[in-house]
Amino acid sequence: MKTVMIFGTFDIVHAGHLHMFKEAKKYGDFLVVVVARDQNVEIIKGLGSLHSEEERLLFLENIKLIDQVLLGDKTDVYKVVNEIKPNIIALGYDQKIYVDNLEKAITNFGLNTRIVRLAPYQENRLKSNKIRKYIERLV
């Protein structure tokens, strides 16, 4: 069985995310989605998420394209890679956070995990930060 892993905040899940899950699943049989912890989201994005990590996890557990949903580690973002040992890590087309040291972490764990970059889906319209700004204008 080939395991594919993806990472993200998934605060406002939209059609672009569904496209991402579908495309990632094409690389294997079992899709694992790792949800960023609340404290890490705040550090990375400079503001908290709209939904708690537990809410985001629960929401994703109900998407049938996804086989397993996990919370990332609070201090070592690569720890879950060593625990799951995925065959493939699929990165979003614009994913930049924690990508620089990913290959090094995979090598240090002694894994033979392949990294792939997924294509965008309506990138000018379906981006979480654009959707959040739109929602905040309405409120």
What is shown here, in short?
With 139 residues, the chain is an alpha/beta fold. 37% of the residues lie in helices and 17% in strands.
Describe this structure in words.
This protein has 139 residues and is of the alpha/beta class. It has one domain: HUPs (Rossmann fold), CATH 3.40.50.620. It is built from 6 helices and 5 strands; from the N terminus they run E-H-E-H-H-E-H-E-H-E-H. It has helices at residues 15-25, 38-45, 53-61, 79-84, 102-108, 128-138, and strands at residues 3-8, 30-35, 68-71, 88-91, 114-117. The chain has a 5-stranded parallel β-sheet. Helix 1 links the parallel strand 1 (3-8) and strand 2. The longest helix has 11 residues, at 15-25. It is globular, with a radius of gyration of 15 Å.
Helix-strand layout with pairing:
Blueprint: E1 3-8, H1 15-25, E2 30-35, H2 38-45, H3 53-61, E3 68-71, H4 79-84, E4 88-91, H5 102-108, E5 114-117, H6 128-138
Parallel strand pairs: 1-2, 1-4, 2-3, 4-5
